[in-house]
User: Fold this.
Amino acid sequence: MSASTATGIVHLSDREPALSGAEMVSHLVPPPQFNEATFDTYRVDPDYPSQQEAKETLIAFAGLAETPKRGGFFSRAKKLPDVKPGVYLDGGFGVGKTHLLAAIYHGMRARRKYFGSFIEYTALVGAMGYKNTVELFRGADLLCIDEFELDDPGDTMVMTRLLGELVASGTKLAATSNTPPNALGEGRFAAQDFLREIHAMAASFQTIRIDGVDYRQRKLDGHAEVLTEGAYESAVADASRTGVVSDDDFEALVAHLARVHPSRYIRLIENVNVVGLRNVAPFTDQSAALRFVAFIDRVYDAQLPIRATGAALDTVFPDEMLAGGYRKKYLRAVSRLIASTAA
Assistant:
């Protein structure tokens, strides 16, 4: 997201963003903080060997590994294992999965390649229609899918069909998630009714496990930062003199998110430099909580600081939500909220 030269205070709950299919496609590139992501800049944690192993596997997948030399005139070249058309990065939040996904995107010598979140691809199908979306991506060399989710049967059917058609036409796939591909949908809908589709999709991927500690938490302890009303007013006023800061009541913004498709959240925060939230309170509705997670993903991708009053933002997901099928989604959001309030 490009920086704005404007200044002042805006209210996100007043914005009614629109996004055409063509604009959605133009956004299918890595988030700004991963514009320069490479395999060389991926910091491997020596305490977790799976990170180095994943890095080496993905370098080969991207076609950047050196070809093994033959030992002699009569020697046979070492036979490489069969390579599946897709790689699936399975691991906790904050272990560098998105960095590695972006490194694949930047490193692979491809004429046509796309990078987007799962929700962006499903929204594109909704905006353009399934047939047109297939034709758009047909012949693409690489499709990168960040935070792969199958939260409802409709998404399951659409994405498995779409990816199946693209793999058949030669497209390579790279995806990240907190859930192994054969467990997608687990705890969220009647996954057993869609096992054939889920397992067929999983067969296209080589699952690569990445262990580690959330890098955002390595230097951050405690809760998301909470400001007093006076400190919040000062922070908003200061930010508005050098850029654009949003100032919204938490409940009002959450209600507004229900009226805006998640694919448009990126437009909701366009040209905003700081996000301000007043009177933060825990969620009582899971649908509202999930929309907020999608919103925070876009805020974090844009590297926007958050200033807030009320409850600490890392406490907005109650224990019963954290114990459910969306636990990993909520924990990823908590990690990002703590980092954003500390920025």
Summary: DSSP finds 13 helices and nine strands in the chain. The mean pLDDT is 84. The first helix runs from residue 21 to 26.
